[in-house]
TrEMBL record, chain A:
Residues 308-334 are annotated as: Disordered. It is found in: Cell membrane. This is Putative ABC transport system permease protein. It comes from the Bacteria. One of its GO terms (cellular component) is plasma membrane. The chain crosses the membrane at residues 12-29, 58-78, 85-104, 148-166, 197-220, 226-248, 255-274, 286-304. GO terms for molecular function: transmembrane transporter activity. The keyword Cytoplasm does not apply. Pfam families: BPD_transp_2. Keywords: Cell membrane, Membrane, Transmembrane, Transmembrane helix. It is a multi-pass membrane protein.
UniProtKB/TrEMBL annotation, chain B:
It comes from the Bacteria. The lineage of its organism: Bacteria, Bacillati, Bacillota, Bacilli, Bacillales. It comes from Thermaerobacillus caldiproteolyticus. This is Putative ABC transport system ATP-binding protein. One of its GO terms (cellular component) is plasma membrane. It is a peripheral membrane protein. Coiled coil: none annotated. Pfam families: ABC_tran. Keywords: ATP-binding, Cell membrane, Membrane, Nucleotide-binding, Transport. GO terms for molecular function: ATP binding; ATP hydrolysis activity. It is found in: Cell membrane. The keyword Transport applies.
Length: 334, 264
């Protein structure tokens, strides 16, 4: 149980990078970008292939990030210069990337066992420094001792650095223009911003994060697979929606924090659901879809119920008020 | 300052819906001119504004700003010279961003955007001072989302955002039309003050004849894609709403007469 939750949180942090990318396209740019399903795998594929060919895993991950950026820019070009509708541009790119990813990997699955990855490098360095023992001594959980704290800490750190950078970027002059592009395109182009360029840049950035996340997931899981991106956009959306519902989205900094939280909560819900007897690992996508449906429907139902209760109370109060008024008139007439 | 030469614009050319929106329009504005534009629905006023701002490209003719030809320049590049306020109060601001962020967006109209922070301490002070001129108390709500403001407040903010960077040309397309009379009057007054203070060259479309007569030093009347009447200086000052209406009827009927003459 604890082990399952622990690894959910680990994975949650890694997937949170992807969710931040989805937040950027869906919420900031108001662009439902389906490239994600493809670019996630592109990141994984590029990193894996570079790693098995002996590239330093950190450099390999950085190259993956760049590959995602390019993929996102192409989607942006399709939409702005090719005048293709946003959904279709993303789907076209997603389909195209499927073949490109196979080309990059040369086959449908690339295992990374026995390879030096970001995860192994960090874990080793961490163990050499003896930090794990120190932590375990301090916390001393009897029932549960995790394999290593390295992944959790390093990934959490990476996510928070990315979050802070993103928050800062969205406060710069370019960042404000990016947000305005998603908020009111007509207005921001009347203030001399090139919305085409901003859209392309924003989608590039979004998919760069997605691909980076894909590269880390591949190294964490020990393989990359051409099908690992299926439904990724839904997982990203789930994280964004759950996060916003649970933690609020008043400001950008709050929203990005919420998205990270949402990514972790999603992983935990998924892990718990998979412990239910009759559900199997192959049901993951179905569970994901259900989680998203619920996270979309429940907040609506809750708020409409609240509204109903409020109206009912109002009506009752008014009735009671009339009663009192009626009683008073009775009294007077007596 | 602004020159339109022989501008023609036809929508849906070659179809049954063909519509000549502008017919060889010529217009020259001197620096500091404040021109009010009146004309019936569909006269081509908005189309002319859009051709100037670059939202629409003319079929023939050329647009010149500050002696430079800008006919082919894209809308966002041309925005360096032009401040605009739209009819719809929702159109001129970003609702999910704060007042100060909106002002920062507008502040960058004439500059290259960089990775420096959009809202700095110094700029915030500048924004606060600018907002005070509106006298709506917005200077105390810098971090409020613009979507929370009323239509009138938003339009006042839009006006400030369009003007405080001193554009070479200010375009106002019925920017008071969506407001209640009191708010409309407020925005009209603000417009007058700002244009006078900053000596802005301005084109303002309005359906309110009284407003068109009260503001500005020139007035033009458009009908069916053409400028059919123009008055400036003393002549404009001596105009009244009745005279304008008479003028309009006279020109219209003479048009009809010539049309009929051609048909016969
Ligand atoms: N995008 C377009 N496509 C087709 N026809 C258009 C388009 N824009 C404007 N028109 C037509 O061109 C003519 C001039 O329109 P325009 O919007 O310039 O009028 P206007 O003078 O601004 O009118 P109003 O006072 O109603 O705002 C109208 O007949 C209109 O139907
Ligand atoms: Mg109009």
């Amino acid at each position: 149980m604890f082990t399952a939750i622990f690894s959910s949180v680990e994975a949650g942090f890694i997937y949170a990078i992807m969710a931040l990318g989805v937040y950027l396209s869906f919420r900031i740019l108001d662009f439902p970008d389906l490239t994600v399903d493809g670019s996630f795998v592109t990141g994984a594929a590029v990193a894996s292939v570079l790693i098995i060919n002996g590239t330093n895993p950190f450099i390999a991950s950085a190259v993956a990030l760049l590959a995602g950026f390019i993929a996102g820019c192409v989607t942006g070009l399709l939409h702005t210069k090719g005048k293709i509708n946003p959904l279709l541009s993303g789907i076209l790119m997603m389909i195209a990337l499927y073949s490109i990813n196979l080309r990059i990997m040369g086959r449908s699955n690339v295992p990374l066992l026995q390879q030096e990855t970001v995860v192994t490098v960090l874990t080793e360095a961490w163990q050499k420094a003896g930090i794990d023992e120190a932590i375990n001594r301090v916390i001393s959980l009897q029932s549960f001792v995790p394999r290593t704290w390295a992944v959790l800490f390093c990934m959490a750190l990476t996510v928070f650095i990315i979050k802070l950078l993103l928050d800062q970027l969205l406060k710069t002059e370019i960042g404000l223009a990016l947000r305005a592009t998603g908020d009111n395109k007509q207005m921001i182009s009347s203030f001399s911003a090139n919305t085409d360029l901003l859209t392309i840049f924003g989608l590039g950035l979004s998919n760069a994060l997605v691909a980076f996340s894909g590269a880390l997931v591949a190294q964490y899981g020990g393989f990359s697979d051409v099908g690992m991106g299926i439904g990724m956009i839904i997982i990203g959306l789930a994280s964004v929606i759950i996060g916003e519902a649970l933690f609020g989205a008043r400001s950008v900094a709050r929203a990005t924090l919420a998205v990270i939280g949402g990514a972790i909560v999603y992983r935990i819900i998924l892990a718990l659901a998979l412990r239910v007897q009759f559900l199997e690992t192959s049901d993951v996508k179905l569970i994901t879809a259900l989680i998203v449906m619920l996270s979309l429907i429940v907040p609506n139902v809750l708020s409409s119920q609240k509204e109903k209760r409020r109206k009912k109370r109002r009506a009752q109060e008014r009735e009671r008020g009339e009663h009192v008024a009626g009683a008073q008139t009775d009294y007077k007439s007596v | 300052m602004l020159e339109l030469r022989q501008i023609t614009k036809v929508f849906n050319e070659g179809t049954v819906d063909e519509k000549v929106a502008l017919k060889s329009i010529n217009l020259t504005l001197a620096p500091g001119d404040f021109v009010t534009i009146i004309g019936s629905n569909g006269a081509g006023k908005s189309t002319m504004m859009n051709v100037i701002s670059g939202k629409l490209l003319p079929d023939t003719g050329s647009v010149w700003i500050n002696g430079q030809e800008v006919t082919q320049l894209s809308e966002h590049k041309r925005a360096r010279y032009i401040g605009r306020v739209f009819q719809d109060p929702l159109a001129g601001t970003a609702p999910n961003m704060t007042i100060e962020e909106n002002l920062a967006l507008a502040y960058n109209r004439t500059k290259r955007r960089t990775l420096k922070f959009g809202v700095t301490k110094q700029r915030r002070e500048f924004f606060r001072e600018a907002l005070k001129t509106l006298q709506l108390g917005l200077e105390n709500r810098l971090t409020a989302k613009v979507g929370l403001l009323s239509g009138g407040e938003r339009q006042a903010l839009s006006l400030l955002m369009a003007t405080f960077t001193k554009p070479d040309l200010l375009l106002l397309d019925e920017h008071t039309a969506a407001l209640d009379p009191a708010r409309a009057e407020l925005i009209t007054q603000l417009t007058k003050d700002m244009v006078e203070k900053l000596q802005l060259t301005t084109l303002m479309v309005t359906h309110n004849m009284e407003q068109a007569l009260r503001l500005g030093n020139r007035l033009i009347m458009m009908d069916q894609g053409q400028i059919i009447f123009e008055a400036s200086g003393k002549e404009k000052q001596s105009l009244t709403v009745e005279k304008l209406l008479q003028e309009f009827q006279r020109i219209r009927s003479s048009h009809f007469a010539s049309d009929r003459a051609m048909l016969v």
